[in-house]
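Single-chain item
Fold in C-alpha cell form
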Amino acid sequence: MKAMEHLIQEGSLSPTELAGRLGVSTAAATLVVDRLVEVGHVDRRPHPHDRRRVVVVPRPASVGQAMAELMPMIGGVARAADALTDAERAAVTRFLGEVREVYREAAAGPAGPAASASAADPSAAR
C-alpha cells in the first residue's frame, strides 16, 4: 500500500528510488514491484533519459480506484475542519504541532533529547 502511495504521488519512480522511500533494500523493492506488476497495479517502463534503467508507473485504473476510495474520506475531513470555530482550529493546530514535535524527537532516535537527558541523569531513563 505504501509503495502505491509513493508511486501515485510521484507518478513514477525507479525501483531504487522506491526502495529509498520505503526504507527497504533494492531487492525487497524489486519483490514489491514484481507483485504490483503481477496483480496489474503498475507497469515497468524504460526510463525517459537512461536506457539502462526502468521506472515503475502506476496504472491509471489503480490510481482511479485509490482516489475513489480516498475522496469521501478527504471530503469528510474537509467538512469537519470547516465546522471548527477559530478557537477550536487554533487548539487543533497547537495540538498537532506538539504531536509533530514528539514524532520528530522519536525519529531522531537515541541521539534525541530523551537520550541526552538519560545520559546526563541515568534515573531519567526509568
